[in-house]
UniProtKB/TrEMBL annotation:
The lineage of its organism: Bacteria, Bacillati, Actinomycetota, Actinomycetes, Pseudonocardiales. Residues 1-357 form the FMN hydroxy acid dehydrogenase domain. This is 4-hydroxymandelate oxidase. Belongs to the FMN-dependent alpha-hydroxy acid dehydrogenase family. Keywords: Flavoprotein, FMN, Oxidoreductase. The keyword Oxidoreductase applies. FMN binds at P77, V78, A79, Q126, T154, K228, S250, D283, G284, G285, I286, R287, G306, R307. The active site is at H252 (proton acceptor). Glyoxylate binds at Y128, R163, H252, R255. One of its GO terms (molecular function) is FMN binding. Its EC number is 1.1.3.46. InterPro entries: Aldolase_TIM, Alpha-hydoxy_acid_DH_FMN, FMN-dep_DH, FMN_HAD, FMN_hydac_DH_AS. It is an enzyme of class 1 (oxidoreductase).
Length: 358
């Protein structure tokens, strides 16, 4: 089937995934106000295009952490991808490799990080801070040894938000899907009505990260450290002072604090505040190439894309992920040209306006 936009892939994924798997992927925390606000905030932003520009030889390439990438995006970390397709992370990583974009391996991947990194391309590794600091730093070392190019340290999950869909479903991992990077025991597989087994498992394993945790990670690796989950300007500037190579402006896709501001609404202010002191990426609600253009105009070096990649994975495995990334690339090239831009640098000089209720 031909998919003309990511909405088509979303519908295809919803048709094939069991209800509780779809809820695990699609849901947010609480009343899902922040989840819905991510899209609403992006849709309120409009770009002011420029005309009569030279557009031949245009490119979507950018440099991220010292390496060129074909698109200003990376695949976001998503846990337990074998829930959505038997090939899981391996299929998604292969498609990202061939698209020329980084793939972020999750601490809670359902395939060992070394196997995913061996696919090649530009793997990054996402770190959750564990109760045992030694185990956290061992994961960092394993990622570096496996060839990962950056550590994406998620700092907005001291524990998992109350994801009511999962709780109502009594969601638990099937026996065939495990946390492949460390021994997680039985907690994530124990089904209890009114309880998310995944949340119960993370409550046992995770600890709140602190600035001292950031320093411990930086001292343990030569890789660039990127802090994911920053929304306050004060945290962004402190991240620069702490030596972070990048920050990801994000409310965790609406899955942590319900009521947290959408990242796109803080992006411009944060980009101005850090003033080139580190790379600034955006995560949350990206659904088309125009969204990437908007993020660039507001100061983002790149974006992370999570759920849409999983839609492609669920709908058609590796080929579905390729379709997701191809659609985003096609839409971005189209948006760039129609906005009068021949590069992502030009896109970052565009002006924007917010329209409608906000």
């Amino acid at each position: 089937m031909t998919h003309l936009c990511l909405d088509d892939l979303e519908r295809a994924a919803r048709d094939v995934l069991p209800g509780e798997m779809w809820d695990f992927l699609a849901g947010g925390s609480g009343a899902e106000a922040s989840l819905e606000a991510n899209r609403a905030a992006l849709e309120r932003i409009f770009v002011i295009p420029r005309m009569l520009r030279e557009l031949t030889g245009g490119t979507t390439e950018v440099e991220l952490f010292g390496r060129r990438t074909a698109l200003p995006m990376a695949v976001a970390p998503v846990a337990y991808q074998r829930l959505f397709h038997p090939a899981g992370e391996l299929a998604a990583a292969r498609a990202a490799r061939d698209a020329g974009v980084p793939y972020t391996i999750c601490t809670l991947s359902s395939v060992p990080l070394e196997e995913i990194a061996a696919v090649g391309g530009r793997p990054w590794f996402q770190l959750y801070w564990l109760r045992d600091e030694k185990r956290s730093l061992e994961l960092v070392r394993r990622a570096e040894d496996a060839g990962c190019e950056a550590i994406v340290f998620t700092v907005d999950v001291p524990w998992m938000g109350r994801r009511l869909r999962d709780m109502r479903n009594g969601f638990a991992l099937p026996d065939s899907v495990t946390a492949a990077n460390f021994d997680a025991g039985a907690a994530a597989h124990r089904r209890t009505q009114g309880l998310s087994a995944v949340a119960d498992h993370t409550a046992r394993e995770f600890a709140p990260a602190t600035w001292e945790s950031v320093e411990a990670v930086r001292a343990h690796t030569d890789l660039p450290v990127v802090l994911k989950g920053i929304l306050a300007v004060e945290d962004a500037t402190r991240a620069v002072d702490a030596g972070a190579a990048g920050i990801v402006v994000s409310n965790h896709g609406g899955r942590q604090l319900d009521g947290a501001i959408p990242g796109i609404e803080m992006l411009g202010e944060i980009a101005a505040a850090v003033s080139g002191g580190c790379e600034v990426l955006l995560d949350g609600g990206i659904r088309n190439g125009v969204d990437i253009l908007k993020a660039a105009a507001l100061g983002a070096s790149a974006v992370l894309v999570g759920r849409p990649v999983m839609w492609g994975l669920a709908a058609a495995g590796e080929d579905g992920v390729r379709q997701t990334l191809d659609l985003l690339a096609t839409e971005l090239r189209n948006a760039l040209g129609l906005a009068g831009c021949d590069s992502m640098g030009a896109a970052r000089r565009l002006s924007t306006r917010v329209s409608g209720p906000g």
